[in-house]
TrEMBL record:
InterPro entries associated with the record: Aldolase_TIM, NadC, NadC/ModD, Nicotinate_pribotase-like_C, Quinolinate_PRibosylTase_N_sf, Quinolinate_PRibosylTrfase_C, Quinolinate_PRibosylTrfase_N
Keyword flag Iron-sulfur: no
Domain Quinolinate phosphoribosyl transferase C-terminal: 129-298
Protein name: nicotinate-nucleotide diphosphorylase (carboxylating)
Record-annotated Quinolinate phosphoribosyl transferase N-terminal domain positions: 42-127
CDD domains: QPRTase (cd01572)
Organism of this sequence: Pseudarthrobacter defluvii
NCBIfam families registered for this protein in UniProt: nadC
Amino acid sequence: MTEPAVIDQAVFRRPPLDLTLPSAPVRDILERAFAEDAPSGDITSQLLIPAGARATAVLNARVPGVLSGATVFRDAMELVDPATQVELLVADGESFDAGMHLARVTGSARSVLLAERVALNLVQRMSAIATKTAEFVRLAEGTRARITDTRKTTPGLRILERFAVRCGGGANHRYSLSDAVLAKDNHLAVMTGGDPAKLTALLLAAKAQLGHTTHFEVEVDRMEQIEPVLAAGVDTIMLDNFSIEELTAGVALVAGRARVEASGNVNTGTVAAIAATGVDVISVGALTHSVAALDQGLDVELAAG
């Protein structure tokens, strides 16, 4: 059995991840958020704040982390009032310490207060995802394993949450069900009718219907499924809920015939050992489905008028 590889990072250095967001879907998310949060305006500010009042406020980090959503925070402020000026002091993907100022906002006090909650909700959640991802990436350092997200995202916010994963140094799995074939346990159960002897032939027949650029991945949950799946020439084999010993044996059995992905029971206590088995990809649903918002606040420094 080959030893799991701990490799020279220079050999497997990742290409720079894209830290840009397309403007149209972000604007759509923000418009829907403001329609929900202020369908008829902010009656509190309209009652209490003079129309001509202006304010300067800072986005403060109350705990350390990795920033994601800086541009979304800016876009939220500017969507409410294009005259609002936003200075980003820390860029998406950069780490910060508690007490740091992340952005400064100057504009109509009413506009800043109306935009505050939507802007904060998004940058807090995105920064939490980026911070959690960075922790997983750090724990997998020195191995070939790439940390990726899953489709376990908040409906309607997937593009932001996947961007946050990239800000934390992780990579993205397929974006949607339309992007790649991923046959999971329930697919296999329906396909084979419980007869594992049919698996290879059925996968080969399915693969023959695909275009040559479509990625084909199959999830297995038992060692004996690996060879029949590999015989179909799939691109990636996902070893789901395998023990560390089974992952090591599975990587040796695949022996480069397909990319190996590990999933299931991945947390900060297990990810280093999983990465050390030699898998190529570790998918982590917890990056997006169970993070708590990172503590950040918008504090008014100066109000005038």
